[in-house]
Amino acid sequence: MHTLMISIKHYQKIDQNLRHDRTFDWQHFTLIMESEFEHFLIERVTQQEIHLCLKSNVYEKSSIVLKNKKIYRRPGHHPYLYHVKSWDLVQNEPFITISVQLTNDQVFAHTFHTNFDGVDEWNEK
User: Fold this and answer.
1) Which Pfam families match (predicted)?
2) Rounded distance, CA 23 to CA 20, Å?
């Protein structure tokens, strides 16, 4: 009976870990961000936000921010990832690395190839 209880607790622990794993949310976030970076130019990066402009209309501005434990694009409210404790943005043109720590203490990082404002024009010359 004791062995059965230990086995059940072990499998319950595995089940709990699988339910709290946010790897699929992170993969979804990276796919969305890759798509966004195809349509936007990055104007500048700070620790708080990524400032963007639309490729087809550079006067249409937006930004990606971490606020209230979620990463989203504004103006408006276009959420990308929830339950984010902190993030770190590292700019190394034409790449940007986004590292996040989630509220369950999982840590993820991804380096995106992006278009910084002015990079495309320089490459075309």
Assistant:
1) ComGF
2) 9
pTM of the model: 0.79
Query: Exposed, middle or buried by CB within 10 Å (0-12, 13-18, 19+), for 85?
Result: middle
Compute the distance between CA of residue 121 and CA of residue 11 in angstroms, rounded to an integer. Answer: 56
Q: What is the DSSP letter of 106?
A: -
End-to-end CA distance of the chain: 76
Residue 10: C-alpha distances to residues 3, 13, 15, 17, 106 (Å): 11, 5, 9, 11, 21
Q: Which residues contact 108 (CB under 8 A, 6 or more apart)?
A: 22, 23, 26, 99, 100, 102
Query: What are the sequence ranges of the domains in the chain?
Result: 22-124
Pairing of strands 40-45, 84-92: unpaired
pLDDT averaged over every residue in the chain: 88
Q: Cα separation of 80 and 118, whole Å? A: 26
